[in-house]
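User: Fold this; tokens only.

Assistant: Input:
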Amino acid sequence: MAGFLDNFRWPECECIDWGESRNTVASIVAGILFFTGWWIMIDAAVVYHDPEKLNHAFHTCGVFSTIAFFMINAVSNGQVRGDSYGEGCFGRTGARIWLFIGFMMMFGSLIASMWILFGAYVVQKKEVYPGLAVFFQNALIFFSTLIYKFGRTEDLWA
């Protein structure tokens, strides 16, 4: 799973060499998605500042998604495979556990945001935009995590 995008090929174009700029493109796209997710949530928090329209506890999902983003991307694919990391307290097993906890937090935040959307807004027949903002924030952070984690090559600093 660590290199499932390694065989992905961009359409051939003489004007751009995508092979050398894959890390740059993946980082920019992930950053734009991450920024857009937080921008949507900040917009909803400003427009719906009344706790009856947007409960302040709903921001917790985005915070946990952001923490999971950093947890998942703190572990390189080489550490998970055991290629570049064999020392420390836990070694490869510790890196895999850390990555697993990060993905659990990410999926938990995404599922909780869906529950907030449907449980607090759709079923209650309230205005849906605050719930959509919570959901889209977490979905965009989730996709930015996947693009940043699996869209780059290992030789980022080479």
